[in-house]
Amino acid sequence: MDLFALEELVIVLAASVLIIYLSHKLKLPSVVGFLLTGVLIGPGGLSLIKNTGTVNILAEIGVVMLLFTIGLEFEPARLKRIQRNFWAGGGLQVLLTTAACVGLIVAIFGAGFREALFYGFLVSLSSTALVLKIQADRGETDAPQGRISLGILIFQDIAIVPMIALVPVLANAGGVSAGAIALRFGLSAAAIAAVFAVARFLMPRVLHLVVRTRIREVFLIATLFICLGMALLTSTLGLSLALGAFLAGVILAESDYSHQVVSDILPFKDVFNSLFFISVGMLLDTGAVWKFKFTVLALVASILLLKAVVVVLTVSALGYGPRIALMTGLAMAQIGEFSFVLAGVGRVNGLLADDIFQAFIASSILTMLATPLLIQISPALADRSERALRWKRRIVAAGGKSGRDLKDHVIIAGYGLNGKNLAHVLKEAGIGYVVLELNPVTVRSAAAEGEPIIFGDVSSRVILVEAGVRRAKGIVFAISDPLMTRRGVKAVRELNPDIFIIVRTRYASEIDGLLGLGAGDVIPEEFETSIEIFIRVLEKYHVPRNIIDAQVKVLRGECYGMLRGACSAIRPVTERIADLLAAGTAETYFVGKDAWPVGKTLGTIDLRGRTGATVIAVIRGEESFTSPGADFEIKAQDTLVLVASHRDIDRAFHYLTVGETDDPDAPGGGA
Fold it and tell me: Three-class SS of residue 474?
């Protein structure tokens, strides 16, 4: 790398730091910040970078790294959890989007089939990095729209591999023949088969030899060699670099070292991916875009509308309602990062002219910039669409059993693991309940098992009335959609002021808001985990269970004030815990068959003198001996009831186990 190239790289990194910082302050996704960085410093902006060759080389490595990590994440177990959204949702979305684009482009612009098919590929892909990042920030990863988006996006990420493999065939001036397509995919299939053969029989042994060196640098270099070497191999065979990188990821995913590979490669991937998005921004010619600004805006509007409609139809075909369908559709209406990769391959193969390429880059960047706003307004638009379609009433008629005939029952919102466990307990206790669930597959399977389940949205007043909310005694929110939970709590409280409302949430920040909306109990998962940890710790110090339970009640009764850092709660609670730990306690010790105290008297072992603990009773089978004297003989399988401070109880347990104290300051210590 010459000095000039190094200077350009420094400019890129410096501009990235500044603009990404500003993007973070404005709450824009980092991907958007990288794109804006490229536009600003590139030839079409301030022209701080005139020769983009060095950056483009690094960006191409970034694409290789991106496909490599996708291959590492290609796990059958992961796909199994979302297989319906992956196969049916992803396949239908890509097929419908591509077909719609081909039909519209051929009919309106009279383009050839191969160009139209390539444009359809470009439009069909959405941004995995952008959508999942925004949904994670909004706490919607486990919400229905989050799970659907994940399945479709992973399918798109996998679909890029055959799309890239097909580009050279589409670029053939002689047209696209079935034989050429079959040959191309045959080569890809043969390469994939060869890779799996290597992964199953050869690669584990090679990786094992590398790991045995116990040299981290060797492992890292070997990983990069596999990644880049496979990319070079597939490129030599006439396939793409990206395909080779993906296959390399699949190889390592089959090994026992995949997690370490991800850990080592992640910093490289993040750096190169950032450069990739910056390089895409540099490709934008702002002069050309301004010249065709109305065309670009029309293209942006068409892409957003087409993709949103197709995703809405896809999600509706999966059995979800208009609210979830519209929220998912607006979230995935943009052009994705892999479309840039595909566009670059198409440009090299002559499928994209320069003016069309510029229009595509400009419209793609604008769709990504519009995504945060679309996701933000999607809940309000979804609510209006439901009211306009009056769809909710029809869903109740089609959905499972009603709660209208129940009284003093419990409504369970969400039939995941927590919802199923609660339903099982209520059934065993003879308490009536009805379940509300939005996943159509779950509803059908639960209804087939005889569960009283309704297919509907817990934030809908119509659905709540059908569930008998006015006669219900309680409702439990066991869903992972923060927005729907808040809306549901408010609606329930307005419909039944006397009902008790229990809400499970993943986020402590939701507690005060949910309580303000009318929730009776809010159970944050992170704080409940903290409580379970301190319960286990206190049990190790022999704090009686009734004292532990009392402290748990104090914490929950004060709405987790101590754990949340509420100053008014911290001092009193910590003082009470300190007092309880300083106080004495009772504990039992079971004398095993070969324990050393067997056959000895209490006077001989001198437990009180050596540890400070007193034996107040001995339980032998069905018989108990209270206040045993010094001449009382200990026998195998006796249970000694001890009284002492918590510290002395620990000393006594150690002494009774090994025959000596571990504290030289204790009475008789170190004997």
Answer: strand
Count CA within 13 A, CB hemisphere, residue 471: 15
CA-based nearest residue to 242, from 57, 62, 94: 62
For residues 323 and 457, is the Cβ–Cβ distance under 8 A?
yes
Residue with token string 């995703």: 311
Instruction: State the Cα–Cα distance between residues 619 and 637, nearest whole angstrom.
Output: 9
Residue 421 burial by Cβ neighbours in a 10 Å radius (0-12, 13-18, 19+): exposed
Pairing of strands 614-620, 474-477: unpaired
pLDDT in tens, 20-58: 788 878 877 777 788 888 888 888 888 888 777 767 776
SS3 166: helix
* Count of all residues that appear for the chain in the document: 671
DSSP 264-333: HHHHHHHHHHHHHHHHHHHT--HHHHHHTHHHHHHHHHHHHHHHHHHHHHHHHHTT--HHHHHHHHHHT-
Structure tokens at 354: 């320069």
Cβ proximity of 154 and 229 under 8 Å: no
Find, among 330, 317, 322, the residue nearest to 375 by Cα.
330
- 585: β partners: 644
Task: For each of the domains in the chain, give its residue range(s) and CATH number, in order of start.
Answer: 51-381 (1.20.1530.20), 393-519 (3.40.50.720), 526-582 (no CATH), 584-658 (3.30.70.1450)
Name the 3-class secondary structure at 336: coil
* Neighbour order of strands in the sheet with 639-645: 584-590, 639-645, 614-620, 623-626
**Integer CA distances (angstroms), 390 to 308, 315, 435, 453, in order:** 21, 18, 22, 21
Give yes or no for a contact between 480 and 143, defined as CB atoms under 8 angstroms apart: yes
173's tokens: 């001036």
d(CA 322, CA 101): 23
Radius of gyration of the chain (CA): 33
Cβ proximity of 436 and 458 under 8 Å: yes
Give the model confidence (pLDDT) of 493-504 as tens digits.
999 999 999 999
Phi, psi of 74 (to 5 degrees): -80, 75
Assign 389 a pLDDT band (cuts: 50, 70, 90): low
The answer to whether 281 and 365 have CB atoms below 8 angstroms apart is yes
363/297 Cα distance (integer angstroms): 7
How many whole angstroms separate alpha carbon 591 and alpha carbon 639?
6
Tokens 């050869």 locate to 202
Dig out the tokens for 598 from the structure: 């067997």
Residue 619: how many other CB atoms lie within 10 Å: 16
This prediction has a pTM of: 0.74
Strands 521-524, 500-505: pairing kind: parallel
Numbers of helices and strands, H then E, in the chain: 32, 10
Lowest mean per-residue pLDDT among 210-214, 418-422, 530-534: 530-534
Measured between alpha carbons, how far is 240 from 243 in angstroms, rounded to an integer?
5
pLDDT of residue 329: 96
Could you give the CA distance from residue 218 to residue 210 in angstroms, rounded to a whole number?
Answer: 7
- Residues 38/280, Cβ–Cβ less than 8 Å: yes
Task: Check: CB of residue 412 under 8 Å from CB of residue 422.
Answer: yes
Q: Are 276 and 66 in contact (CB under 8 A)?
A: yes
Structure tokens at 602: 């209490």
